[in-house]
Amino acid sequence: YTLFLSFVLGLLYRQTKSVGYCVLFHAFANLLNLYFVLKINFIFIIIFIVYLIYTILASNRISKEKIF
Q1: Cα–Cα distance between 58 and 50 in angstroms, integer?
Q2: To the nearest whole number, what is the mean pLDDT of the chain?
Q3: What is the pLDDT of residue 54?
Q4: Residue 42 burial by CB count (10 A; 0-12/13-18/19+): exposed, middle or buried?
């Protein structure tokens, strides 16, 4: 599992050149692992996915702003 995750994170970084997306993907992978191993609450997963989408949208908005 760890080797596969490292490979996927490497590919993700190579495509996006963003550590932030790698962090989000790793967090999502951990969440899925917790869901299937510990059977955490479904509401928590929905909240996390909404937060993930918000973070991605905010990240895109910030990266589009020009810094002088």
Answers
A1: 12
A2: 77
A3: 82
A4: exposed
Model confidence, pTM: 0.53
C-alpha span between 57 and 40 (Å, rounded): 26
Q: Which residues contact 16 (CB under 8 A, 6 or more apart)?
A: 22
Asked whether residue 45 carries a pLDDT value surpassing 70, the answer given is yes
Measured CA angle at 22 (ends 19, 24), to 5 deg:
115
Name the more confident of 52 and 67: 52
- Between CA 13 and CA 30 the distance in angstroms is 18
Place of tokens 């509401």: 43
Helix and strand element counts for the chain (H, E): 3, 0
